[in-house]
Design brief:
This protein is an alpha/beta fold. The protein has helices spanning about 1-10, 15-25, 50-65, 75-80, 100-105, 110-115, 125-130, 155-160, 170-180, 200-205, 225-240, 260-265, 285, 330-340, 350-355, 360-365, 365-375, 385-405, 410-425, and strands at about 40-45, 65-75, 90-95, 135, 140, 140-145, 150-155, 190-195, 270-275, 295-300, 315-320, 380.
């Protein structure tokens, strides 16, 4: 990436420009790499990013030969709860979980590092992503990427049935028409399958203007009986029953057995999943299974009612934090600043300069970039910690209600009335 660019501007400035481009934000070069004392630091990160992280760390080591970086790839569960990553100098963290770790005293606030580092351009980050790691007025992690629910589609099936590919900006009506055009009962092909669980349904609810709690920032009670929430769930239920374009697990062919298998076998035209999942081959999401079909990506469709919002995705942010126990904070900070200047994973980059760069479009493809930009412009934030702590049981109740609707055991109205009674009884009004 960088050498190709440098060849364009001439070999005479190679030495100076190379240092700049490798050490600071893509927004510009403000100075040469600072000298660091010899140090050995550990870096715990999501192991599904290993192929992308290892080459970057090698580049970092060339730039800072006196700093040795020991890598500790881990699963999301290990990074979140219980792993030797707890004593790593640099540690990957996630939205909604970081605050619990911060309260334990695991991390250093990063504001002093940013103030001292003239080469670090904090304004290059999307503000919404920075806010996810800002707690009590302090920044505790630098975003390295964003994940979001999106809709994937099987290009092979679309071509087979002569269906136009979906485009960013499509609506619920477009979505249903597309799913119906793909539905082929004789071939056991379904138009759509939900792989994002209740979060995908939650997005539909918010698109229509519904709510599942009274206040996202300070929730006090579940609002499953909100009329717009029920209306959104009715529409979702129609996908399974009136339109019959989405399968319940019981409706899948025995040879498939699961939605994941049905997708791989070419029996699902569209499915919801994470942005990070693209192409499969992810240990965290797809157990290393590579998608055999030609695939495409689009945002979630928008509702068409007067109360509809423009939300087309939800933000689950990843970031890098510094351990409060690190013996080499300057070296650890320099690694974080270096890594976050690059598109180092399958996730949406957190830096505007990376998302808008020609290099990222060449790497990810114009369709993927269009989805990334749309999500960053029209997003539903991941629930704050207060939401998770106070309404975790309510979310479980919601999940049960969704299964009732999918299976046809209850109507949306009946399921949400039941969910409201359960929430009031278990959690309190």
């Amino acid at each position: 990436m960088y050498l190709d660019y440098l060849q364009k501007i001439g070999r005479l400035v190679l030495g100076c420009a190379l240092i700049c481009l490798l050490t600071v934000s893509l927004a510009g070069c403000k100075g040469a790499a600072p000298t660091l004392e010899p140090a050995t630091i550990t870096f715990a990160y999501l192991r599904s990013d290993r192929e992308r992280i290892e080459p970057l760390v090698e580049e970092f080591s060339k730039l800072y030969p006196h700093v040795t970086v020991e890598l500790r790839p881990a699963t999301m569960g290990e990074l979140s709860w219980n792993f030797e990553a707890a004593d790593a100098d640099v540690r990957e963290v996630f939205t909604a979980i970081i605050d619990n770790q911060r309260e334990r005293g695991d991390f250093l606030a990063l504001d002093p590092f940013i103030e001292r580092d003239e080469s670090f351009d904090v304004s290059d980050f999307y503000p919404a992503v920075l806010e996810t790691f800002t707690i009590e007025g302090k920044l505790w992690a630098i975003p390295c990427g964003v994940d979001s629910g999106v809709v994937y589609y099987n290009r092979d099936l679309f071509d087979q049935y002569g269906v136009p590919y979906p485009q960013v900006g499509w609506t619920w009506d477009d979505f249903v028409s597309t799913a119906l055009a793909l539905r082929d009962p004789e071939a056991d092909v379904y138009g759509y399958a939900n792989r994002e669980g209740q979060w995908g349904v939650w997005l539909f609810v918010h698109q229509l203007g519904g709510r599942i709690v009274d206040d996202m920032q300070n929730p006090t009670r579940a609002t499953f009986d909100d009329p717009l929430t029920i209306e959104a769930l009715e529409w979702y239920g129609d996908l399974f029953h009136d339109y019959a374009v989405a399968p319940t697990p019981q409706q899948l062919r025995p040879s498939a057995g699961s939605i994941l298998s049905a997708i791989v076998m070419g029996e699902v035209g569209m499915w919801s999943d994470w942005f990070e999942a693209r192409g499969g081959d992810s240990d965290e999401i797809w157990d290393g299974i590579k998608w055999p079909m030609r695939w495409g990506m689009v945002t979630f469709p928008r509702a068409t009612a007067d109360t509809a919002t423009d939300v087309v995705g939800d933000l689950w942010a990843h970031g890098y934090a510094l351990s409060s126990q690190t013996l080499h904070p300057d070296a650890a900070w320099r690694l974080v600043a270096f890594l976050t200047a690059h598109a180092s994973s399958r996730k949406i980059p957190a830096r505007r300069s990376v998302v808008e760069s020609e290099e990222y479009e060449r790497q990810a493809g114009s369709e993927t970039v269009a989805v990334a930009r749309a999500v960053l412009e029209n997003w539903l934030p991941y629930p704050p910690r207060e939401f998770i702590n106070k309404t975790l049981e309510a979310l479980g109740i919601l999940g049960e209600a969704i299964v009732m609707v999918e299976s046809g055991q209850r109507t949306a109205q009946e399921a949400m009335d039941w969910a409201q009674r359960e929430a009031d009884a278990r959690i309190g009004p």
